[in-house]
Design brief:
Length: 642
């Protein structure tokens, strides 16, 4: 009886992997359920196991089905990849690779390409072939035709393991979908889902790049969660971590006894601050591994976009290093040219393969052209987190309201560079951990001022150019700092003040999605105009948003605890401006005492910050008002014509 011990895997199959051009290497490497031809029996079903370990002397397959004794299951070497077909092995089989290193040590490793992994403290890989039948074709068709920059995008950032602790993928497919639908977000962003042994890393210490964490269920159950979100009209963004990986003995580090996925030189290959290894982006097989991984989540799990973590740490060779602790590039500079090339490669490839996909950079420096197309010399991301806006805004909010007049520019400075990149405005998990407290806790003075300020700030954020992202729990002003061990304090969500904020976020999302002026020209200077950027004395910011097709919305925010009963606002057109939002409304558990009776009338007057008309507006204390232009005033009786 003879059949192919390598399971049909040839050097030709691996040529792309070794050249950096295989962007679907999960179809070849790892554990692949397949059939081989046997001379006597014809097609024989089983699993082909294969692993890249070019410097190994021997590689054995140890598994639950052979009692973890793999002497008789030696993998066959070939071009640095070892492979073996094992008859009868199907989904659910636990396995590892046992590797004899060049210096004579035996080490046990999980499969880098495993599609399913044991939950910690277990470290075995699990054979897994998806049987899932998708039902989101309508969503996928829309995605392929989407124009993200001109569409609404408000993102709810979620740590799946602690949104409601103990919930599985299947339970989240009911409860999370229902909640996000009710709140009205367009997308969710999951903190890393790929397998990780330490829950306290929130997924940023990845050991199983191709495996959704088994803490919450099986891979097809994660597919079901994504499918249900798509059927509800909600996009799914996934945190992706190609910047570093942990040193756990069973994982990628020193995989065959040598630095395989990482640089050997710690000046290039280690993040000392994080205790992690750095990928060797110049190595062809590593490029194949990482680009394949990005495409894997997009194709196999229908993920709509990747938020690439810690891009700054990838771009700079001296990131968080002192003099003498880093190696310059070939031109003597600090830029990591291999990482830059890799990021351009992955962005270009994903956009070509999957039109409509979102590539988002968490990048905290002023590196030029992060969202500029690759063919114009940029990195090719679709969006960049605006960390400057975030830091400036949080500094402003932390000031006593009396002192804010002296820091007014913190809230206007982002418009100086607003069109240098395609920005997202993030209030992410990073701002409510590690002693930073909650958003509620950052704001000074009493609870009334805290709730009012948060309502005003979120309306400021939703009216500002750029897509929005808010971390879970901030929509109802959780008072405690985030902890993955405790989860969200849902008991607060329906209490006085907290519930009002939750209702406000729901209305903000509804208004945002219904009014193209608030999103269509986010990346075009024609979509934004200051009404008054300089009223530091009153702590008031006012601007105009337009969609270019006639819709006009004025956004006015008062960050002072003093109401302004007759605040004069210059507007571009005379007529009726309907009050579509007032964050002091009793519905949002504000005072309900400061409003404009549903509308204001703008009358033609000269001057007024260059406007053609002026209006007197009642601004609530620590409150925000949005006014939408409805038509021209035809008489003093306030009659309106179309």
């Amino acid at each position: 009886m003879a059949h192919d011990f390598a399971g049909g895997l040839t050097g030709w199959d691996l040529e792309g992997f070794h050249s950096g051009g295989d962007t679907e290497c999960w179809r070849r490497l790892g554990a692949v359920v397949t059939e081989v031809h046997d001379d006597e029996r014809g097609a024989v079903r089983g699993t082909r196991f294969s692993v890249w370990a070019p410097n190994a002397q021997r590689v054995l397959l140890i598994a639950e089905f052979n009692g973890w004794q793999g002497d008789e299951l030696q993998l066959v070497p070939g071009s640095g990849v070892w492979a073996r077909f094992v008859e009868g092995v199907e989904t659910g089989a636990l396995y590892k690779f046992k590797i004899l290193t060049a210096d004579g040590r035996w080490i046990e490793k999980a499969d880098p390409m495993a599609r399913f992994c044991q939950a910690a403290p277990g470290t075995a890989s699990i054979v897994y072939e998806s049987q899932y039948a998708w039902a989101d074709e309508e969503w996928m068709e829309r995605r392929r035709a989407s124009q993200a920059h001109a569409e609404p995008m408000s993102v709810y950032e979620v740590h799946l393991g602690s949104w409601r602790r103990g919930k599985t993928y299947l339970e989240l497919a009911e409860e999370l979908v229902e909640y996000v639908t009710w709140q009205g977000y367009t997308h969710v962003e999951f903190m890393p889902v790929a397998e990780h042994p330490f829950e306290g890393s929130w997924g940023y210490q990845v050991t199983g790049y191709f495996a959704p964490t088994s803490r919450l269920g099986r891979p097809d159950e994660f597919r079901y969660l994504v499918d249900r979100l798509h059927q509800a009209g909600i996009g799914v963004i996934l945190d992706w971590v190609p910047g570093h990986f942990p040193k756990d003995d069973f994982a990628l580090g020193r995989f065959d006894g040598t630095a395989l996925y990482e640089h050997a030189d710690p000046r290039q290959g280690e993040h000392m601050d994080w205790g992690t290894y750095i990928f060797n982006y110049g190595r062809s097989e590593v490029k194949s591994f990482l680009v394949s991984n990005a495409l894997y989540w997009i194709q196999e799990f229908h993920i709509d976009g990747l938020r690439v973590d810690a891009v700054a740490s990838m771009l700079y060779l001296d990131y968080s290093r002192n003099e003498g602790e880093w190696v310059p590039n070939q031109f003597g500079g600090r830029e990591n040219l291999e990482a830059i090339d890799f990021l351009r490669y992955v962005n270009t490839h994903l956009y070509e393969r999957e039109p409509g996909v979102l590539m988002i950079a968490e990048e905290s420096t002023s590196f030029p052209g992060v969202t500029r197309p690759v063919h114009h010399g940029g990195l090719g991301f679709g969006f960049k987190w605006n960390m400057g806006w975030m830091n400036d805004s949080l500094r402003y909010l932390a000031e006593d309201p009396f002192n804010r007049r002296h820091h007014h520019h913190l809230m206007t400075f982002a418009m100086v560079y607003a069109y240098s990149e395609n920005f997202m405005l993030p209030i992410s998990h990073d701002e409510v951990v590690h002693g930073k407290g909650s958003m509620f806790g950052k704001i000074p003075q009493d609870d009334w001022r805290k709730f009012a300020t948060l309502r005003a700030f979120y309306s400021f954020m939703w009216g500002f150019p750029g897509k929005q992202l808010l971390f879970m729990g901030q929509e109802f002003a959780q008072t405690a700092e985030f902890s993955e061990t405790r989860g969200l304090d849902w008991w607060q969500a329906d209490q006085e003040g907290h519930h009002g904020l939750k209702l406000l976020l729901r209305d903000l999302n509804s208004l945002y999605r219904a009014n193209p002026a608030l999103y269509k020209l986010d990346n075009d200077p024609a979509g934004f105009q200051w009404i008054n950027a300089d009223d530091a004395g009153a702590n008031v910011f006012s601007w105009l948003r337009t969609d270019g097709d006639g819709q006009l919305i004025a956004c006015i925010t008062n960050f002072s605890p003093t109401p302004h009963d007759h605040y004069q606002v210059g507007l571009p057109k005379a007529g009726v401006w309907t009050e579509i939002l007032n964050t002091d409304s009793a519905y949002f558990q504000g005072t309900g005492s400061y409003g404009n009776m549903g509308q204001v009338i703008a009358r033609e007057i000269p001057g007024g910050h260059g406007a053609m008309a002026g209006a007197s507006v009642c601004l609530p204390p620590l409150g925000s008002v949005w006014l939408k232009y409805d038509g021209r005033l035809t008489s003093l009786s306030n009659a309106v014509v179309d």
